Amino acid sequence: MDQPSPYSPGAITPRIAGRNQQRAAIDERLDYLKSFQRLIPQTRVDTGPSGTGKTSLLWHTQQRARRRGVATVWAQCGAAPLLPTIAGQLGQASDGQSTGRIRRVLNSIREHGAFKVKAGVPGVAGAEVEWSREGRPGVERGPASGAIPSIAQTEDLLSTATELARKQGHTGLVLLIDDIDQADAASVRNLFYAWENFQRERPDLPAGIFATGLPHTRAVLSQAAPIADRFAYSDLEPLSPDTVAVALARPAQDVGVLWDHDALRTASDLTRGHPHVLQVIGDETWKTAGYPGPGARITDHHVRAALPAVSRAMQARPDLQIQPPQHDVPAIARPGSLAERVAQAQRSGVPAAQLPRPVQHPTPGQRPDRGLER
């Protein structure tokens, strides 16, 4: 029986490969918010090149927050100024129960623009703002002067929204900001100066901010809001060969399909630790193998036969061009490597949940239980 591919290139992945350090640090911060009902003082920012799984990690952060009873607001940067987008989301989330203070802030923004709802990321509602400098149709659109909430308005909006969330039975409020490096400077400045004020005046406010951005995000945020100690950055490094092997094998085994050791080795060589490439190779290999059913095997031949399709799928990313596989990489090729153990476990019928897990060793500046500290 044909089965659809369990891999998802270009989409949020239901299962995060690796990133154990990041997930542990995120969980610790969310537990702090829930248990102590206090403000998370630093904004966590996970950075990395396009396709390294930043949005997927942020989506998983949202799910982890919701499991703790925390209300969440997702803001996608780039299409409209950040703070009006957040304000629009909070207005939608309040569902007519917003207090007079939220109404006042939203009304002051609507004097310069009109909100409408659109899809943000898969499965997450979004908000965008239609802007007109003159308030008339047919003129050039762009951020209007005075349309960005002030620092005081931002404080009022976020504190009121958090209090409202608690009245509705939530344990707090978390903002999730994707691609923050694309946010407008005025919103970034006002948001994080408001957050700095919260640290002094409202440490009892159970709220937090988690964000993602490209590698140059540090420079962007430092220029917009020169308060570097208010951000906790974490760089998403390439995945280890062991992590790649598990990430390829486990989704297939969940639907009864096994990867041969040679196939895992070739695919791991090709990914160079890049999560997006991993998903593309998994997906194209699955198609080449004929959408395998339970009991089927994915072989090294399938991986190599999929290379032309993989190269076509990667044409939009010249920085990630696929190189011919090299089998002289000691970390994956030596006997006893995790890839070999994964293949052996599959052959013996070990359930996917019990497959060997990669061990992530701390790098300089890292503690095993707290992620990056900079």
SSE order, one letter for each helix or strand: HEHEHHEEHEHEHEHEHHEHHHHEE
* Poorly predicted tracts of residues: 112-146, 328-335, 359-374
- Shape descriptor reads elongated
Q: Got a strand count?
A: 11
Rg, nearest Å: 23 Å
Key words describing this protein structure:
374 residues, alpha/beta, Rossmann fold, 5-stranded parallel β-sheet, 11 strands, 44% helix, disordered C terminus
Describe this structure in words.
There is one protein chain. The protein has 374 residues and is of the alpha/beta class. It has two domains: 20-235, Rossmann fold; 241-354, no CATH class. Helix content is 44%, strand content 15%. The chain has helices spanning 20-36, 54-67, 82-94, 100-110, 151-167, 185-201, 217-224, 241-254, 261-271, 275-288, 300-305, 307-313, 330-333, 338-347, and strands at 43-47, 70-76, 113-121, 124-131, 172-178, 207-213, 231-235, 258-259, 297-298, 366-367, 371-372. Strand 5, helix 6 (185-201) and strand 6 (207-213) form a beta-alpha-beta unit. The protein is elongated, with a radius of gyration of 23 Å. The termini are far apart. 44% of the residues are buried.
Quickly describe the structure.
This protein is of the alpha/beta class. The chain is about 45% helix and about 15% strand. The chain is built from 14 helices and 11 strands.
Helix and strand topology:
Blueprint: H1 20-36, E1 43-47, H2 54-67, E2 70-76, H3 82-94, H4 100-110, E3 113-121, E4 124-131, H5 151-167, E5 172-178, H6 185-201, E6 207-213, H7 217-224, E7 231-235, H8 241-254, E8 258-259, H9 261-271, H10 275-288, E9 297-298, H11 300-305, H12 307-313, H13 330-333, H14 338-347, E10 366-367, E11 371-372
Parallel strand pairs: 1-6, 1-7, 2-5, 5-6, 8-9
Antiparallel strand pairs: 3-4, 10-11
Helix pairs in contact: 1-2, 3-4, 3-5, 5-6, 6-7, 8-9, 8-14, 9-10, 10-12
